């Protein structure tokens, strides 16, 4: 399980010392070695203990990233790319020390091609920054993992979120990347065409590689026209199972639902208390439709009929922006509302994803496990994709509670894998889920190791992540 | 250019002889060495000269594929996966001889999971076979490259076609693959969950790798509900440019067009003559919409209004299946109609893809080039993606004509690349486009070579394809 799998990466003290000297001289104030800043660059929204880097560099261009990687390559020192630190599985820890490469100063939107529905950005641009920048164009970038993550980090972890059911994940929404490889060379993975059959898919190879194969220095992203109309609402169901059946029917009907989120009973209780809204205290689906005025109304009505067939309802929905925002507020507040279930506790957020036909069963078994283990752990899910999250509320200073939470996560991951699913739908492997990757993909992990060894023979790019020791 | 880049792959005579003996003994009648059958397995729908393999194996399972690859690995003999032979760029040629691995007996649908909208098939199942199999389920697999290609071959070349604008390409529609690697080991690239952030994207690495990294032995594919209603029609435009502007506006509006095909003036002339239908002799868009009854009517009406704004029309459309089929007949007959433009000639089919904002310019320059070079070469395009095809009609027995066609293709590829596009949107690199890959991706090709060398150190999987000599 997670903590016990934190691999030691041997420290190369002499190399680190040499690299620190060179980078300090070259980057001056843009290279920091203070304890606080180093700690901030390792400690993210995770319970995994902090393993700080030895220094933090703030490059301002792809060329500067190349310089840093070349210094680290010459001295065999780890380089760990850092976006905003919202990752959840220890992705930015530095188990062998080394340099954190903070992309926050690489935050320019380089081009917006409205006719082509694409844009090119530096990796430190966050998704909210990008959408603010696009506001006057009538376009938007849909992927929404919750946190205001950097787009480079979102690509590196193959992030997705609530509207992946309609718009896909980062995998489907990156047209091309520019990245610095382990030898300091710069590669452009693809051109700006919507599709291509020209050679190996280097774009997708880097997406989800968590900074272990290359450091992303620019991204060309797909954009979408802001829909003419949006309708959305909330629909209670007698059970998780009936809610899941309604989701399956909705998707099979071909209704192009933009978001369809399951909130379980415990989470609804937390939301009611937190939001002071008159929600029912039973499992609910929060749904949203994008399209023409007539289209979104038709979709909402059809969904309401499907929900009723499965005993759900009443389905309260609206196309009026303010009312929709109010209806959806609860879903957006889920994280903060959850914390009120156990004041003072912190949350361990974990995610799995299973074929949608197994979703109800997987959630039911997980709820039973939560009850049996005496945990407080509400569930929310991007159920159109079969993806759900559990937030285990725990005292992170209690080794017993951490051990129990890890046992729960382990059982959850193995349950998802046994149901033909994955141990992570969108959070990534990092350090936290390394122990499950071979259970999930077997010999595939050997292929990954072969690729890693070929492209980063010195193992300097984010070492000790994704790939468990062979 | 193409022919001059056909790389010699050194023949390993002793190894080939040994492998032939072993495979003949093991597979009996399912291993063929007759000249005719060997020639059929190299000669595909291309003008590139045939380079026949030394034998053709017909495995019936993944385990048998492993056996064949292990024999070839032991004796360092090329293995070339073969689907139905509809590829266009010499993908199945055997420049260093070796074994053609014909997947036609691996043609079982292994599972259909209707609730999950997915299925698992063997690689020799063709897309028409699959859709026939699915007929009673209300589901379909949308990717349509024109030919009745095998699904293994479609994944291997990252195929797409007319409705990629709505449903994506093979890249977006394969959930997982099982493949035999160069050492004969079997890998499963992913599980059946709709999305995953678990490690490197081996699925996408194999898709488009044209059999050079692994041989696909099963595919898990996304399926879709057959739409409640389909509307479609034909709309003439005064010029290619106005047609392209209408396409851009349609997509920016967020109209979920399922197909949007450009047919240029010369192609329309051929179609009129061939189909005896009363089409206008000007550039046309053929469009199709999928959705609810009300939805497809609304979409067709909105598209008609957009077309009119750009001087197009009248837009003749219908939701009645027979009438729609008749309107679309011309588009489906394009290949055969084209051949009537020069009786006795054969067609060299080539494709490029550019950002849609450059599409009109790219087609205009290409039409001018065709006129200047005195070629007969109609154009059709999957213009929603910026992808178009040119069919150069030529006498394949004339070296001068071949040289001229190659010059044209070279100029077309370099033009697309100069416009931030790709030398192939959906046909792949094979042998025919190797000369352009470095122009398009530069150092990216070195990364591809590193991956190829790591995963296939003996270079036995489809050698002499995709990667130009370093």
TrEMBL record, chains A, B:
<dbReference type="InterPro" id="IPR006094">
    <property type="entry name" value="Oxid_FAD_bind_N"/>
</dbReference>
<dbReference type="InterPro" id="IPR016164">
    <property type="entry name" value="FAD-linked_Oxase-like_C"/>
</dbReference>
<dbReference type="GO" id="GO:1903457">
    <property type="term" value="P:lactate catabolic process"/>
</dbReference>
<keyword id="KW-0809">Transit peptide</keyword>
<dbReference type="Pfam" id="PF01565">
    <property type="entry name" value="FAD_binding_4"/>
</dbReference>
<dbReference type="InterPro" id="IPR036318">
    <property type="entry name" value="FAD-bd_PCMH-like_sf"/>
</dbReference>
<dbReference type="Pfam" id="PF02913">
    <property type="entry name" value="FAD-oxidase_C"/>
</dbReference>
<dbReference type="InterPro" id="IPR016171">
    <property type="entry name" value="Vanillyl_alc_oxidase_C-sub2"/>
</dbReference>
<dbReference type="InterPro" id="IPR016166">
    <property type="entry name" value="FAD-bd_PCMH"/>
</dbReference>
<keyword id="KW-0285">Flavoprotein</keyword>
<keyword id="KW-0274">FAD</keyword>
<feature type="domain" description="FAD-binding PCMH-type">
    <location>
        <begin position="49"/>
        <end position="226"/>
    </location>
</feature>
<dbReference type="InterPro" id="IPR004113">
    <property type="entry name" value="FAD-bd_oxidored_4_C"/>
</dbReference>
<keyword id="KW-0560">Oxidoreductase</keyword>
<dbReference type="GO" id="GO:0004458">
    <property type="term" value="F:D-lactate dehydrogenase (cytochrome) activity"/>
</dbReference>
<comment type="similarity">
    <text>Belongs to the FAD-binding oxidoreductase/transferase type 4 family.</text>
</comment>
<dbReference type="GO" id="GO:0071949">
    <property type="term" value="F:FAD binding"/>
</dbReference>
<dbReference type="InterPro" id="IPR016169">
    <property type="entry name" value="FAD-bd_PCMH_sub2"/>
</dbReference>
<dbReference type="GO" id="GO:0008720">
    <property type="term" value="F:D-lactate dehydrogenase (NAD+) activity"/>
</dbReference>
<protein>
    <recommendedName>
        <fullName>D-lactate dehydrogenase (cytochrome)</fullName>
        <ecNumber>1.1.2.4</ecNumber>
    </recommendedName>
</protein>
């Amino acid at each position: 399980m997670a903590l016990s799998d934190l691999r030691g990466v041997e420290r190369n003290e002499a190399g680190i010392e040499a690299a620190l000297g060179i980078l300090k001289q070259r980057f001056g104030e843009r290279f920091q070695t203070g304890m606080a800043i180093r700690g901030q660059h390792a400690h993210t929204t995770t319970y995994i203990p902090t393993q700080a880097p030895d220094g933090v560099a703030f490059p301002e261009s792809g060329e500067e990233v190349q310089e840093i990687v070349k210094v680290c390559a010459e001295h065999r020192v780890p380089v760990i790319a850092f976006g905003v630190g919202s990752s959840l599985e220890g992705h930015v820890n530095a188990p062998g020390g080394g340099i954190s490469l903070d992309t926050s100063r690489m935050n320019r939107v380089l081009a917006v091609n409205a006719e082509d529905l694409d844009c090119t950005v530096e990796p430190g641009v966050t998704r909210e920054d990008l959408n603010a920048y696009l506001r006057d164009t009538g376009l938007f970038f849909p992927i929404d993992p919750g946190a205001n993550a950097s787009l480079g980090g979102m690509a590196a972890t193959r992030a997705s979120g609530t509207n992946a059911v309609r718009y896909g994940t980062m995998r489907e929404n990156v047209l091309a990347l520019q990245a610095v490889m382990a030898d300091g060379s710069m590669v452009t993975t693809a051109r700006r065409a919507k599709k291509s059959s020209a050679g190996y898919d280097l774009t997708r190879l880097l997406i989800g590689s968590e900074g272990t194969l290359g450091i992303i220095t620019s991204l060309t992203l797909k954009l979408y026209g802001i829909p003419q109309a949006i309708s959305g609402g909330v629909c209670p169901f007698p059970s998780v199972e009936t809610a899941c059946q309604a989701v399956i029917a909705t998707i099979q009907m071909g209704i192009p639902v933009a978001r369809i989120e399951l909130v379980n009973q415990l989470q609804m209780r937390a939301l009611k208390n937190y939001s002071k809204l008159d929600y029912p205290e039973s499992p609910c689906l929060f749904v949203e439709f994008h399209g023409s005025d007539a289209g979104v109304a038709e979709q909402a009505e059809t969904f309401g009929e499907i929900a009723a067939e499965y005993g759900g309802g009443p389905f309260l929905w609206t196309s009026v922006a303010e009312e929709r925002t109010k209806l959806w507020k609860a879903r957006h507040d889920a994280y903060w509302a959850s914390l009120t279930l156990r004041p003072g506790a912190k949350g361990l957020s974990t995610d799995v994803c299973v074929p949608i036909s197994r979703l109800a069963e997987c959630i039911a078994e997980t709820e039973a496990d939560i009850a049996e283990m005496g945990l407080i752990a509400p569930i929310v899910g991007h159920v159109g994709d079969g993806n759900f999250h559990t937030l285990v509320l725990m005292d992170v200073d209690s080794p017993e509670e951490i051990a129990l939470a890890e046992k729960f996560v382990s059982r959850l991951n193995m349950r998802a894998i046994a149901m033909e699913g994955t141990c992570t739908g969108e959070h990534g492997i990092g350090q936290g889920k390394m122990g499950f990757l071979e259970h999930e993909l077997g010999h595939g992990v050997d292929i990954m190791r072969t690729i890693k060894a070929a492209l980063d023979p010195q193992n300097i790019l984010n070492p000790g992540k994704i790939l468990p020791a062979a």
